[in-house]
Design goal:
CATH architecture of the largest domain: Orthogonal Bundle
Number of strands: 14
Order of helices and strands: EHEHEHEHEHEEEEHEEEHEEHHHH
CATH class of the largest domain: Mainly Alpha
Shape: elongated
Helix content: 25-40%
Number of helices: 11
Strand order of the largest sheet: 6-7-8-9-11-10
Structural class: alpha/beta
Strand content: 15-25%
Length: about 400
């Protein structure tokens, strides 16, 4: 939940009055009456800001700051200190320990709101994340990869002792975040043996989702036999069709988003999520073109080819098949403008004569510019590939 605050103050009456006013103004407020209780809450939940009383019995505000900064290196949670004390040295020490700002009691409510707006506007940066840090309640164990959406880590959820794949988004517009959350939560309701389970979706401290950690290897970056390539894309197409029937598009099908488990099954990753990333975000900071645009269908680039729908995923699956067979995508330009022009207007190269004519025909049909000439569904593509496997096995 956004605008979520944790208040740690040993004066419950004063705290509840302040919390009530903040809640009326749209904040979600959790209150605790001791430093120990506050740290326990912080270990279990994610908060965008802490309001901590400086003078408390037992663990005082200075000790709370020290523990928060020691245990929660990322994100750096803003801390607003409150105190009725006139001791300037104590206030200086609080700031030196890591408090971001300081207000004197009794609190002037309009001034408090202004401080909250200022401190909570300082959003964390996904680029600062690294293994060994803590994100929300997760312990980041290993960096897995990065892309247009953000970073992916192998992480531990210490609450239940489960390792997960934690996907953390770059900064997005509020509308994009809401669409991401809605779509991710929708996908989380889908149970399919060849889709990774989604365990949690949230928007603070940055939009993220934790997913099943899939052992195995992606289909990207190694060579496959012709029969392996056909069988794996056929299996992926069957999974894609099953999810299409629930009204969900993938929009970023490519070898890197297909995982082969140690048992030889193909799992489809990142369903429905790539639609929230603009095409330009698939460029690195240096401007080097990454792979994703090579898999996009013509209708993704111009409405003259029709609307983006399930057949767009069929096109991407066929590009994936072509790459697994040949080692290259049909169009290989590293200049974005030239690549997009080729996808829209140049006929895709055909497979060579070393491939069966029926396989060449499948690729030609799957890569058709206009959807009327393409396979009508991922199921049709899967059936054609399964038939080819039977044919070649005879």
């Amino acid at each position: 939940m956004s605008n979520q605050l944790l208040m740690i103050d040993d004066n419950p009456l004063e705290t509840e009055v302040l919390a009530s006013r903040l809640q009326r103004d749209g904040y979600s407020v959790r209150t605790t009456t001791s430093g120990v209780e506050g740290l326990a809450c912080l270990a279990q939940e994610s908060f965008q800001l802490l309001i901590v009383d400086l003078d408390m019995p037992g663990m005082d505000g200075l000790e709370v700051i020290r523990e928060v900064r020691r245990l929660h290196s990322y994100p750096r949670i803003p801390i607003l200190m409150l105190s009725a004390s006139a001791d300037t040295q104590r206030k200086v020490e609080a700031v030196e320990r890591g408090a971001d700002d300081f207000l004197s009691k009794p609190v002037e409510y309009p001034f408090l709101k202004a401080k909250l707006k200022q401190l909570m506007g300082q959003r964390p940066d996904v680029h600062q994340l690294a293994a060994g840090q803590r994100f929300a309640h997760y312990e980041l164990l290993e960096f897995i990869g990065a892309g247009g959406m953000g970073k992916v880590f192998r992480a531990l959820d210490p609450r239940i002792g489960r390792e997960v794949a934690l996907k953390i988004l770059h900064h997005q517009s509020p509308n994009a975040v809401q669409r991401f959350l809605q779509e991710a939560r929708s996908i989380a309701q889908v149970s399919h043996a060849q889709l990774p389970a989604i365990y949690e979706v949230a928007d603070t401290p940055l939009p993220f989702l934790s997913m099943e950690l899939i052992p195995g290897e992606s289909l990207q970056g190694r060579s496959w036999t012709q029969s392996e390539a056909i069988a794996m894309v056929a299996e992926a197409a069957e999974v894609v069709h099953a999810i299409h029937q629930r009204g969900i598009l993938h929009r970023d099908l490519k070898p890197a988003n297909l995982m082969r488990t140690p048992e030889g099954r193909v799992k489809v990753l990142d369903f429905g999520l790539a639609k929230f990333v603009e095409l330009e975000e698939h460029l690195t900071q240096s401007g080097e073109l990454l792979g994703t645009p090579h898999y996009t269908a013509p209708e993704n680039l111009s409405s003259s080819f029709g609307t983006v729908d399930f057949q767009s995923d069929v096109y991407s699956l066929t590009v994936t098949l072509y790459q697994l067979l040949t080692g290259n995508t049909p169009f290989v330009s590293t200049r974005l403008g030239e690549l997009l022009q080729d996808i829209m207007f140049q006929p895709p190269p055909q497979l060579g004569p070393e491939f069966p004519s029926s396989l060449r025909a499948i690729c030609d049909r799957g890569l058709a510019k206009h959807k009327a000439d393409r396979f009508a569904s991922a199921s049709e593509l899967a059936l054609a590939l399964r038939g080819l496997l039977v044919e070649t096995a005879v």
